[in-house]
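Class, study these two lines:
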Amino acid sequence: MFIYSIRASTVKLFGFVALTLLLIGVTLGFGGGETVMAAADESGINFSGIKTNEDRIEFINGFGIKVESEPLEEEAFTMPENFDRVILGYNEIQKKQGLDLSKYANKRVTRYTYKVTNYNSDGEVYANLFVYRSKIVACDICSASPTGFVAPLTQVDKSNLK
């Protein structure tokens, strides 16, 4: 005699896999098999092709922000696999501009920090770019003052620019 038991979690897993395969099949069936490339962001911002310091500065300048010609800091690090509360909060800022850091868990990322020269603020203001393989995976503008701020770089308030 042969007895086989199935746990509820096994049934859920097979159901999820079957549903996923069905959705993929339906999508390909209606799409005619054509591959459509989606932009990283609906706003038309190109986050890729960032290979040099000039590329990084040009990207930042595209939002009306002026920075010093060399980064104040350049740091390479491995994005953690499990995000803590701080990184999850920062990722919510990134999602507002069409980026998502969770795709880069365990990846080696480089952060470039530039001093902003045309922002009206009591303290110093910085622009940060996080780059992975010539692609910006996160970016922000922030203030170093005690009452500072962190905001999406792509949504900077132009009224604060000199």
Q: What stands out?
A: The mean pLDDT is 81. Strands lie at 73-78, 108-115, 125-132, 135-143, 150-152. The longest strand covers residues 135-143.
